[in-house]
């Protein structure tokens, strides 16, 4: 019976579900991250190991339950699945508005001498001077001086007693020094194409751009001129 079922299953037109293997994609955008990337780990695992985060807010779906993450629930953290000193917690966007302390004011009242109940309010609340009836006048400070925005100048570069990740140090150093990508090199086929154009038209870039056979991609005159100049510089070097 089992053999017949196997035959029937093999003849079925339904596609067999196969488990996808590990991704073979290579990280080419950043050489520092590519150097420390582990192909056997997922994107979240790599980012967590490198001290980075793949999203600014918390995960919308399920998260991987690791020994390091289970039972954290750090009260100082805005996320239950990360510690307070983690990168994900620092970049987390908190949707709840922080609770603000209510300002306490004093006012004179008249109470019943027997029951102590408030009969009437004798004093008046001191109102701010607002001759133009500005609705935003109540939001200003009592001294009338607004707190100056200092941007991110008050954010510390590193927390106390925190071990700096070497990958983060390399990324910060590269960003500080303004390291640029290596210039694009012309391929061998592009060099052959430019050589045919130069042999036929010399330095007449207008005719090069109008040639439909040698310029099937309709590169502009200025673009061809720039490519030829770069090609000649590589030939003379």
Sequence of strands across the biggest β-sheet: 1-2
Please indicate the percent range of residues in DSSP E strands (runs of 2 or more).
under 5%
* Uncertain stretches of 5 or more adjacent residues: none
The biggest sheet, with number of strands, parallel, antiparallel or mixed sense and barrel status, is:
2 strands, antiparallel
Backbone structural class: mainly alpha
Order of helices and strands: HHHHEEHHHH
Radius of gyration: 34 Å
Percentage of residues assigned to helices: 25-40%
Number of strands: 2
Count of alpha and pi helical runs: 8
Shape: extended
Taking the alpha carbons of the first and last residues, their distance comes to 76 Å
The overall average pLDDT, rounded, is 75
Biased composition (Basic residues): 8-27, 226-237
Main location: nucleus
InterPro entries: Ribosome_biogenesis_Nop16
Function: Involved in the biogenesis of the 60S ribosomal subunit.
What topology emerges from the helices and strands here?
Blueprint: H1 2-11, H2 31-35, H3 43-50, H4 87-90, E1 109-111, E2 118-121, H5 166-177, H6 188-201, H7 205-210, H8 221-236
Antiparallel strand pairs: 1-2
